[in-house]
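Action item from last week, closing it out:
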Amino acid sequence: MRTAFKNLFEYNFHTNQKILKAILDNASAPADCVKFMSHIINAQQVWLARLAPEYPTTVGIWDLHEKEELESKLTIDNENWTNYLKTAMEEDILKILSYKNSKGDPFNNRVMDILYQVINHSTHHRAQISLLLRQTGIGPPVTDYIAYMREPH
């Protein structure tokens, strides 16, 4: 199971990089693309901080980052997730985590479901970014999982 999540997070990082490159390479990319990419990174940091206290964050879920900061923030976020997944044991992934959301509401979820949430959340917002790019005449990159798996890594 840990290997499956490792693969999903590698895919997530790879496709986030592709979307970010499309944003950075096109001056006409809408400002909301930066907003959504900032949100993807922030949400991943918030979820990781809930899972592992050694990765604390003070970032707000909708805090906006400068366009020029996104690449380094994405890379650091990926390194932290990679390290977390290297040390998480199979039984850790099956545990229930008690946490509070950004509104302070308490929840209990399996770590496994949180990991799926992180991946699915990024996919959702990459699709929003892709639509924004397409609406301004910029062809978004292919971000399908199967396309990623067909590439050599």
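Closing note: The helical segments are 2-24, 31-51, 70-87, 90-94, 111-135, 145-150.
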